[in-house]
Each structure stands twice: as structure tokens, then as C-alpha cells.
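Request from the bench team (R.T.):
"We need a structural guess for the complex before ordering more NAP. Sequence and SMILES attached. Just send the C-alpha cells back."

Command: build protein-NAP structure.
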Amino acid sequence: MFDPVSDIPDLSGRVFLVTGGTSGIGKETVLALAAHNPAQIYFIGRNTASAEGILSKLKASFPSLTSKRLDAFIGNAGIMALASALTKDGYELQFGTNHVGHAALLRLLVPTMLRTGEKEPAGSVRILLLSSQGWALHPKGGILFDNLKTNCSDIGVPLGSNWTCYGQSKLANLLYATELARQYPTVTTVSIHPGVVNTNLVNGLGFWNRALIRVSQFGKGLLTPAHGAHNTLWAATVESSKIKSGTYVEPIGNSGAKLDEDAMSRELAKKLWDWTEAELKTLKA
Ligand SMILES: NC(=O)c1ccc[n+]([C@@H]2O[C@H](COP(=O)([O-])OP(=O)(O)OC[C@H]3O[C@@H](n4cnc5c(N)ncnc54)[C@H](OP(=O)(O)O)[C@@H]3O)[C@@H](O)[C@H]2O)c1
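Reply to R.T.: structure attached below.
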């Protein structure tokens, strides 16, 4: 059980950044954090009308938009099972959006987070990457590095390429969190499964994919977006002794989920790290 009203502590002085804060789980994360007195919350999304609506609701919580500290990075933005395509930079669309985009932003923000951590109790600075139970849909071998700059049209079994590539991108979120934890031991880094949540991610799918998700939750139903934010909020704000860096966390605060060989592979996590480092050097600012 987790109740954001009573379980989130006072967040005075703390600064948060949430990607994909304009709808679904990210929006609810922003709204719940704002109710606990943080110094600032940055949120990122593409939908200006939605962002303006949230800002006007929370005007008093956003006194300025500059900060010398960052206490929590919540990499929440994501897409799922969309039609095959490439990003502008030439990555498979889901891998580019769900993994490369967050890695690029983190490269800019980690120095600020490390500096913030120097003045805070150990483990209080956090990186959260929204993964998904869907990581298990990844292709054989985990991540097909030679395919990451193709449009993912020919690797899909058994549900189809777009689900396989979603799984690959969400496995990348999980593995990247484990490697970030090794690279930056003073920052608590975890990947998160939020539950199966009734958001645009699900409702924007075609009929058969929506039906697949609803059937998979038969008897339980989908979580509301507000409930879908609980695991994120737990990981962002729980006291440091209760959260273990490098873990994959299912609702609420459960880091004991069964992982497969690829999801536990240090070698694959390091290979992803090295691949990402090399790619980020080629990207324009
Ligand atoms: N819903 C679930 O059942 C479920 C289950 C497991 C994991 N997750 C994960 O939870 C996270 C949040 O998903 P959600 O369910 O809340 O979905 P959502 O309602 O569709 O929200 C996704 C957010 O990501 C943003 N976004 C997408 N592509 C972007 C891009 N290229 N650049 C910047 N922002 C972008 C969207 O911005 P716009 O408003 O501009 O579209 C939106 O704010 C995702 O990472 C997803 O994989 C969700």
C-alpha cells in the first residue's frame, strides 16, 4: 500500500525533473510531487496545451525555471508499439525515444546531480527510468545492436516487431539503470514498472493491441494514471535505506521480480553503456 498524501515526505529544497510530464503517469507524478513543497519541478513533453494547463494549475509551485541542483531525474516519457519508423537521428523510433533520448538528457544533467549529492545524505539523489514488465518481450539476445538504426520491421516474434522493439527499448531502460548504478555509485538509480495503466500509451493503440492489453488484465482491470504514478513516487521519495540502487522495481517497491539471463547480464548492460556513449558523441547538441 502506498498513499502519496501521507507517504511522501516534505520535499523542501528538492528539485525534480520528469520527462513526459504532460500526460498519463508523468502528469500524475508532477501533480503528486507538487503537493509536497518541492523547490522546483521541471517537466518535459511535446503537448504545449497540456503543459500550459498543468502550469496554470500549479503556478505557485514554479517560481522560476533555473536551478543549480537536481535531486531526482524521472525518465518517464515513452512510446509503445507504434508503427515502424526512425527518429530524426536515425534510431529505431522506440529505442531512440525510450532509451537514447533519456541517455542524451542524462549526459547533460548527471554532473549537476553528482554535485547535488555531495551536499546530501548518501542515496538521496535519484535517477528513475520507466521501464515496463514488457521488457520481457525483448528479442533473443536482448538487444540487437546491429538493428538499432533500422526501422524494426523484421525482428518480431511472436507478437510482431513493434512489441519486440518495445521490449528491447524497455530492456534497455532496465539495463541502463543497472549500469548507471555502477558508474555513479553515489546516485540511487532504479528502473520502474508502473503497473498496467489506463493512459494514452494504451488507448492510442489499435483495436487488437488494446484488446490484448485488456485481456491480459482480465479480472484486475487497468490502474488509473494516479495509481500508476505510485511506484514512481515511492522510488523518488522513499528513504534511502529502503531502496537498492541498480534494481528493477515493480509496484510498490518490489525489487524481487524474476529476471531472465539478458536482464541480469552485466556484460549486456556494459555493452549497451559503451554503445550509448559512442552514439552520444555523434549526436549534435
Ligand atoms: N501505461 C502503462 O500501462 C505502462 C506500463 C509499463 C510502462 N509504462 C511506461 O510508463 C511511461 C509513461 O507512459 P504513460 O502510460 O503515462 O503514457 P502517456 O500517457 O502516453 O505519456 C507518455 C508521455 O511521454 C511523452 N513523450 C512521448 N514521446 C516523446 C518524445 N519523443 N519527446 C518528448 N516526450 C515524449 C508524451 O508527451 P506528449 O504529451 O507530447 O505525447 C507523454 O507526456 C512510458 O515510459 C511507458 O513505457 C507504461
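Two things stood out. The pocket of NAP is lined by residues 20, 22-26, 44-47, 50, 76-80, 97, 130, 132, 193-194, 196-197, 199-202 (CB under 6 Å). The chain has one domain: 4-282.
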